[in-house]
Structures are given as structure tokens and as C-alpha cells.
């Protein structure tokens, strides 16, 4: 066999190997599943290595890095395949940064955070957002919000709770207190005392439905089979709030929501009282942008919000959504199109999607 023919044979074998596609795509999901070595350079790499592509006739595949080293190849200095996977390395760096943020009395400067975890500022910011689903500043803000809720729950002075949580001034906190707490700090501290929430229960093709509204907008749309349980769920969210049964005008609002469930084409444009972390807010906003009659996978939603590795966090945000149909978490499916878990039952999810599909067909 001539040298040229041998090269062609080796190249053909490599190209036929499905692992070659992962190498060409620099697929990070293939990292750890196999390694490839380059005969002309004498190094082995991860599939995601950003090094210049090798010619296929010079590539060899190995199941483990030990096999590659036994064959005489040394680890690539660029992708460091003999170190933990980059995903794990990045996760460790971000976890370290999160602990620093949580322990800091004030919001750490981005450059200082990057330096303390041993990364450049730009690369750290990009990796942090990719792993955590938030920027460092957004994460710090979420931690302050968490701290102030905790401090208010202890029953101390509101001013002390604000400063202990890391806010530089009470006025800065009060500017966003309604957005963070959904009510005044004193009312939140009292477990929702004096906060009026109107609600009513109706029936639809999906079973019982509870609609609740605060002064800011609709704060809950709950589905189930037991009306009493739906009321208990609402009470658990505001144990000392003043729950008021809806009057005739409010029941018209319930009728609008029920009408939307039965005929999605009419649309549902209502003021919403959406409460959640910064990450949850981003996910829920992305869900509201999915057109009626269409679906998106958890992976797609993670990409749309700029956090492609936060698929599980996206799923958790969907599971904590309290505004059924208004925030259409029923439109999120698995990557293969199969229906996954739904807070109010997979059968209700299927029914909602079927109704929306019928609307699109008629259109």
C-alpha cells in the first residue's frame, strides 16, 4: 500500500468514527467520554479543545487519558485533559466566588472576585453567568434580597435588617422593596399582615382553578382537583395575609382566565404580580415569549436567557411557577419533544397543548 493510500485509509476510518463529529464541533458534552490524540504533535486533547483542527489521518481516539499516555502522547497544554473537566473546574471557581459574595458585607468588585478565583475579569464574568445563570452582580443582589427576607423574618427592626443585609442605605432598598418583597417591609415582617389578597375559585375543563390578586396584579393561578387544597396553598404563601373572597367583579376575572384556558386564541393580557429570584424572572419572561401553539425545550430556554448550562435550574424555575397559563410553563418540553413533569399534572399539560394546537390548526 502506498503512503498516500495509507493516509486516505486512515483518514476515512477517522471520518467514519462518530467521535470525529464531536471533535469537529468541539462539543463540550463529549468531554470525559473519550480523548483524541494527534500523531504529528504528540499530544492528546479533549473533544472540546480549541486548538487548530488536526488532519483526520493523524488522529487517534482513546477511551481514557491513561490509554493515550500509555500510547506515548502527552496532555495538551491548552485544554489540559489530565485535569478535571472544564465544566467541573468552572463550577468550582463559580462556587468559590459565590461563597465570597455570600460572606461579604458589601458587593465585591468584579475585578477583585476574578483575581481571588484566579481568572481574568472578562473570562470570569462570562463563565460565572454561564454556570450560575446570573451575573456576579445579580447573584449578589439576590443574596442581599435573601438576607433581608431572613432578617425581617426574625422580627428585628426593619432598618437593622436592611443594613445587615448589605444595603448601603435604606432609601436604596425602599426603591425596590415592593418588587423584592411584594409588599412593604413591615407587612412582610408580619407575614403579610394587612396585605389584602382577593381570590375566587372556579371550575374549568382542567378541574378546579383558583385566581388570587394582590394590589400589584394576579399573584397566583392554581390548578387542582380539590378547591380546599388550593385555598390552603394560597394561605401557606401568606399565612397572615387578609384573604378576601372575590366579589362579582372579581369573578369576572376568573371567567376571563377560564375562557382563555378553553379558547387560547382570545389571549390573556392581565397585570401580573410576579415574585421570584432574578434567574426565575428571566426564565418566566422567556416562557411568556413562547407563542401560543408552540413549545420549547428546557435546553432552548436556557440558551435564550444566556445560560446554556443551566438546564436543571430552568426546570426548577418552571416547577416553582405559581401562575399557571399566564406564565406558560406547560409549553416547555424535553429536548425530544416528550412531555415532562408539570406542577399541576402531565395530563393537564397535555390538554393545554392540545387546545393550543387546535387553535393553530384552525388558524
Kindly describe this structure.
The protein is an alpha/beta fold and 363 residues long. Helix content is 48%, strand content 12%. It has 17 helices and ten strands. The strands form three sheets. A four-stranded mixed beta sheet has the order 3-1-2-4. Strand 6 (207-213) and strand 7 (218-224) form a beta hairpin. Residues 157-175 have low confidence and may be disordered.
Radius of gyration: 27 Å
Largest sheet: 4 strands, mixed
Beta percentage is: 5-15%
Low-confidence stretches: 157-175
Reading the helices and strands in chain order gives HHEEEHEHHHHHHHHEEEHEHHEHHEH
- How would you describe the shape? elongated
Total DSSP helices? 17
Please list the strands of the largest sheet in the order they lie side by side. Answer: 3-1-2-4
| Alpha carbon gap, first and last residue | 64 Å
Average pLDDT score: 80
- Which structural class do you get from the secondary structure elements? alpha/beta
Q: Percentage of helical residues?
A: 40-55%
Tell me the total number of β-strands. Answer: 10
